[in-house]
Write a structure and sequence with these properties.
The longest helix is centred in the last third of the chain and has 29 residues. The protein is of the alpha+beta class. 23% of the residues lie in helices and 26% in strands. It folds into two domains: 252 residues, Naphthalene 1,2-dioxygenase Alpha Subunit, Chain A, domain 1; 108 residues, Rieske Iron-sulfur Protein. The protein is globular.
Length: 380
């Protein structure tokens, strides 16, 4: 990867502080969050090269089911073909760049609303009205650009880079640590959406440390999952991180009396895990459910966030409206506490006197993510 540090508003001395061992490491400098030039580099070197989470496989159960996603680098559509296989492709018409689909649904073909160019589910151009008589143009030779697609633990992951290395071998260490939870068999049960007008890395960092339990979560998480007991697994520089939060007991009624996930070890019933597959797949696992934070940056100061509860299919099917509402309100309560500590640092990072800060040993996951950020951005 080409080193183009000189083009970014990042000082070599600041980056060297980030590269230090955890015991002497500092946070990323403010410009890493606030400068649009840094986000432009992230789009080019991270979001156009790394594996990005865009959906859950169970959200597309039938042939013709599709969901549209705006990656930081490209509008795409993920669709289940008539052969039952998932694929991802650009959803930008080959004619005048109009998106051929929006939202989600089920279809047999994609039809551009501008001039009615029509595409098969695999992206092949089926017809282009009134384009006869042109030289060197044949519908059969035209196809929407394809993306790499991989499934991991039920998550649909895509990569714009056709030469990107396979995902699965990079996550074997993480697979081993979460294998008992059956994450791949859980299904989306309820979803919340939040406006998130701050840099995407702020939310990822907050998600991956329990140190802040003593602050905004002092009456919710801290009594059950004390910050002092939390620790982070070694990742051997692989593109993931896992935070363990041992608990004294399950929060009474926090998830509405859900049955425990099958197959867990005794201590896992009272433990909370938070994981990230770099850069944007965030998930949490407790003894009763999973939670998926679906985030997608759209600018240096804006991202879209959906929070999904994940349950075994039979548990989700048995829930009534009150049960779903109870889960949603529990998730909402936690995130409302977190909004303050996302918005606050974002405001503080704009200050002209704001500088890098020192990391705590309880922020090892942030340190791991910072190393990945430096390497993937090419500013090592």
């Amino acid at each position: 990867m080409t080193n183009r540090t000189i083009e970014l508003p990042l000082l070599a001395t600041d980056l060297e502080r980030v590269r230090q061992p955890l015991s002497s490491a500092w946070t990323l400098p403010p410009a890493a969050y606030t400068d649009p030039a840094v986000y432009a580099a992230e789009r080019e070197r991270i979001f156009a090269r790394d594996w990005i989470c865009v959906a859950r496989a169970e959200q597309l159960p039938n042939p013709g089911d599709y969901v549209c996603v705006d990656l930081p680098t490209q509008p795409i559509v993920v669709v289940r073909g008539m052969d039952g296989e998932l694929q991802a492709m650009s959803r930008v018409c080959l004619h005048r760049a109009m998106p051929v689909a929006e939202g989600s649904g089920n279809t047999r073909r994609f039809v551009c609303p501008y001039h009615h160019w029509t595409y098969e589910l695999d992206g092949r151009l089926r017809s282009a009205p009134m384009m006869d008589g042109l030289e060197d143009f044949a519908t059969g030779s035209c196809r929407l650009p394809q993306l790499q697609l991989a499934l991991w633990q039920g998550f649909v992951m895509v990569n714009v880079d056709p030469d990107a290395p396979a995902l699965a071998p990079q996550l074997t260490g993480l697979d081993a640590l979460i294998q008992n939870y059956g994450l791949g068999k859980l299904v989306v049960t309820t979803t919340l959406e939040f406006d998130s007008p701050w840099n995407w890395k702020i939310l990822v960092e907050n998600f991956m440390e329990a140190y802040h339990h003593i602050g905004p979560h002092r009456n919710t998480f801290e009594p059950v999952y004390p910050a002092r007991d939390s620790y982070v697994e070694d990742n051997d520089e692989a593109p993931w991180s896992l935070l363990r939060m041992p608990g004294h007991e399950s929060p009474a009624g926090a998830e509405g009396g859900l049955p425990p996930l099958p197959g867990l070890e005794p201590q896992q019933h009272h433990e909370l895990l938070a994981g990230v597959v770099y850069p944007n797949l965030l998930f949490a696992l407790s003894g009763e459910l999973g939670v998926w934070y679906q985030l997608m940056p759209s600018a240096h100061d804006q991202m879209q966030l959906k929070i999904h509860a994940l349950l075994p299919e039979e548990v989700a099917a048995a829930l009534d409206d009150d049960g779903r509402t109870g889960i949603a309100e529990s998730l909402r309560l936690v995130h409302l506490e977190d909004i303050e500590v996302n918005a606050g640092p974002w405001r503080g990072l704009q200050g002209t006197l704001t500088r890098q800060g020192r990391l705590s040993r309880y922020e090892k996951a942030i340190w791991q993510l910072n190393q990945l950020w430096l390497t993937h951005l090419g500013v090592a």
